[in-house]
Design a protein that fits this description.
SSD, Multidrug efflux transporter AcrB transmembrane fold, Alpha-Beta Plaits, alpha+beta, Mycobact_MmpL, MMPL_dom, 10 strands, cell membrane, transmembrane
Length: 770
């Protein structure tokens, strides 16, 4: 039979070999931010949009470049317009740029004879002539589709729109953005006068910040944990050994991410921080018990056996509940949340395994810690006094908890569901400010998409179909807030204007079927122009209504969509035209519909699991509220804080309740598992609770300090979602440890009935004696 030292060496060697294997997964890690990952996977609307975008293209494959004229000047100044034209021609030559729409290349087509003449709206060669410049600007501000799209309403800025190749990824996208920025600097555009918008811009910024923030958060978390561990154990091994376990679990979790090819995104970037604060709890519980035993003179191996026997079961249950809290996130239809829950849950289980394999092996192999007799008992006095105060003031504590519950439930009712396309960026973030620039000066950045399906064998260019589309367009501009719109109606109106000398009054639909038939010949020819070809299929059997608008938030958009549906029910003839709203923005908004459901499912699964654990441990339904109340109360309190502070329920904040409950219940599991052991050793419930409070109290406080402190490092994030994860989970755990130390012992003595204790009045008498 192997000696403890040989067994420890064998264990250590096996774990080193596993770490070498895990390193291959780390080599495959890539940072990733894909806007499409936030679509609800498996949703029929997503499948519909994928088919739709296969015909008409994605609605977010563009880059908006907003350029402001020098202060006190307009965009019609010759020098500024010439620089815009130079930049436009540069952009047209760039790889992955399909089409460029610019103020200097936008033209007014005129059909004369057999030819089509494109007359520019902005005559660069005549801008030095004040009268010609005035004519151009007057025509531009009278022409539909130019102001709010290419030209700002105040004539102080313009937008250059770049259509890019579909689903352009980060490396080629970064190259394109770098080339564009370099050219803008060369042309003398000041950084503060340049504004960038679009999916690719956000994608590039998010990934770059993820790299920096991941390094910062891990460093801060490790430093904080080191300080707290040193404060707790006052020895180098009390710092190094738990961190070794955490490092191993983090490497294992990230290796799984690498092997799967999922990549590190906005959510999985939190995995190392989570492990620094969550994965260390089992090590602290084990080492705390080990220090107590060795401080009383017990040899290393026996002390380890006692500590593992008393800690392994409770730690196993707590690891199960914590990992389950993360695993329930896999029910989410949002891929980043699903991946975060899966790989963090697996990393928690890896941390548990390492705690009871790697940690004991290192303790056996390392020299025995030098401690004075009674080390580990320094907290007994303060904890005993705290327990006495709690039990003496138990009525006040219970009344305070009840009032807090009622107040929090009232405040929580004010929490609203709300999300925006750039939810994770702070209001003063430069990217957010750039997007707001396009909302204030131009049409906005939120895309709108509607699939147009003619009925009864009609073409999309049937006059009756076009009139139905025009009525929808008018409503969208008048009531919905769409500031820019294009559809087959735009094609027909533009061609009719071109056939009538480019006169603005001719920009309208034909008045008769006869005129429409004459136009169709030109529609087939001019409809292939870049700005028109994505609005109808070549066979003219389907069409697209597309536009942009400011992002008012998902709640407002839901009301707008309801109004649009009511309008179409009353005014759109479905025998002529059927429509279906689709698009990336609609899919992102749809996530909100599932947030409450996913959150309740996650907490519900956790509650059922904890209930099952309590029933197995105590075989008593009376103990279920003992465990659930101290852990559900903090969640309700934090929901109340969200309601009071106006923090909305969105993708990032919806996950905190499931995660926080799974983590917070750990200390309760440790407490009741130790209580179960003490009930077999002590003659009364009161003495069992008192001894459990002393044994578990230090570990509960220390792990809670580590958890709250670790999550507080996320408050430095530039992403709102990460900030709120740190703030709200930290608050939940803080309230949780307070409930653990106050409500839990009161509830145990109130509800638990041990057959050896006797009648209820005897129990009450014992409580009064404490």
């Amino acid at each position: 039979m192997l000696s403890p030292r040989s067994l420890s060496l064998l264990t250590l060697l096996s774990l080193v070999l596993l770490a070498a294997v895990a390193a291959t997964g780390l080599l495959r890690l890539r940072f990733n931010y894909n806007f499409n990952d936030f679509y609800p996977t498996g949703d029929p609307d997503l499948a519909y949009y994928e088919t739709y975008s296969g015909r008409f293209g994605n609605d977010n494959d563009y880059v908006l470049i907003g350029l402001e004229a020098p202060r006190g000047r307009t965009v019609f100044e010759p020098g500024f317009a010439q620089r815009i034209d130079t930049f436009t021609r540069f952009a047209q030559r760039q790889h992955n740029v399909v089409h460029v729409l610019s103020p200097t290349t936008a033209s007014n087509p005129v059909v004369e004879g057999l030819g089509v003449f494109n007359i520019p709206y902005l005559h660069l060669d005549r801008l030095n002539d004040p009268s010609s410049r005035a004519q151009d600007s007057a025509l531009i501000f009278r022409t539909p589709g130019l102001v709010g799209n290419l030209f700002a309403r105040d004539a102080q800025s313009v937008t250059v729109v770049l259509q890019t190749t579909p689903d352009l990824k980060k490396p080629p996208g970064d190259t394109l953005m770098s080339n564009l920025r370099t050219e803008l600097q060369r042309l003398g555009f000041a950084d503060e006068r340049v504004h960038l918008g679009g999916k690719m811009v956000a994608q590039s910024v998010f990934v770059d910040r993820l790299r920096v923030e991941m390094a910062v958060f891990v460093s801060l978390s490790v430093l904080l944990v080191m300080c707290l561990l040193w404060f707790t154990f006052r020895a180098w091994w009390g710092v190094v050994l738990p961190l070794t376990v955490v490092a191993g679990a983090t490497i294992g979790g990230l290796a799984l991410v690498g092997w799967s090819g999922a990549g590190i995104d906005l959510m999985t970037a939190l995995l190392p921080v989570m492990m620094c604060v969550v994965g260390i709890a089992d090590s602290v519980h084990l080492l705390t018990r080990y220090v107590t035993e060795t401080g009383e003179g017990t040899a290393t191996v026996p002390a380890l056996r006692i500590s593992m026997r008393e800690s392994m079961f409770g730690s196993g249950l707590s690891a199960l509940t914590t990992s389950l809290g993360f695993f329930t996130l896999t029910t989410s239809h949002i891929r980043p949340i699903h991946n975060f829950g899966l790989y963090t849950g697996l990393a928690v289980l890896i941390a548990y395994v390492l705690t009871f394999t790697l940690l004991p092996a290192l303790l056996v192999l390392l020299p025995r810690p030098q401690q004075r007799y009674g080390a580990g008992r320094s907290w007994d006095g303060p904890l005993t006094r705290l327990l006495r105060v709690v039990l003496v003031r138990r009525r006040w504590i219970m009344a305070g908890a009840a009032l807090l519950l009622v107040g929090s439930l009232t405040a929580a009712s004010r929490v609203r569901l709300e999300s925006r396309l750039l939810d994770d960026l702070a209001d003063d973030d430069p990217v957010q400010l750039d997007f707001r620039f396009f909302e204030q000066k131009f049409a906005g950045v939120r895309p709108f998409e509607m699939h147009l399906l003619p009925q009864g064998g009609r073409s999309i260019y049937d006059l009756g179909v076009l009139r139905e589309i025009e009525e929808i367009e008018n409503y969208l501009g008048r009531e919905y807030g769409l500031h820019f719109v294009a559809s087959p109606v735009t094609v027909v109106k533009s061609i009719r204007k071109a056939l009538n000398g480019g006169a603005l009054e001719e920009y309208r639909l034909p008045s008769s079927e006869t005129e429409m038939k004459r136009l169709l010949r030109q529609v087939r020819k001019l409809g292939k122009r870049p700005e028109f070809r994505a609005l109808a299929t070549p066979q003219a059997t389907e069409g697209r209504l597309t536009g942009r608008m400011p992002d008012p938030g998902s709640t407002t958009v839901a009301k707008l969509n309801a109004g649009l549906r009511r309008f179409q029910l009353q005014h759109t003839n479905t025998n002529v035209l059927r429509t279906r709203q689709t698009g990336s923005a609609l899919l992102i908004d749809k996530n909100n519909q599932n947030l409450t459901r996913d959150m309740l499912v996650g907490i519900g699964v956790d509650v059922l699991m904890v209930t099952a654990i309590v029933l197995v441990l105590f075989r008593s339904l009376r103990m279920v509220p003992v465990v659930l109340i101290p852990n559900l109360l903090p969640i309700v309190v934090v929901a109340g804080v969200m309601g009071v502070c106006g923090v909305p329920m969105k993708v990032s904040t919806s996950i905190i309740f499931t995660i926080a409950f799974g983590i917070a219940v750990d200390d309760t599991i440790h407490f009741i598992s130790k209580l179960r052991l003490m009930l077999g050793k002590e003659p009364t419930v009161k003495r069992a609770v008192s001894r459990t409070y002393r044994l578990a109290g230090k570990a509960v406080i220390v792990t809670s300090m580590i958890l709250v402190g670790g999550f507080s490092t996320l408050l430095f994030s530039s992403f709102d979602g990460t900030f709120y994860v740190g703030l709200l989970i930290g608050l939940t755990l803080l309230f949780g440890v307070i409930a653990e130390l106050t409500l839990l012992p009161i509830l145990v003595l109130l509800f638990y009935r041990n057959p050896r204790v006797g009648k209820a009045k005897q129990l009450r008498a014992e409580v009064a004696e404490v």
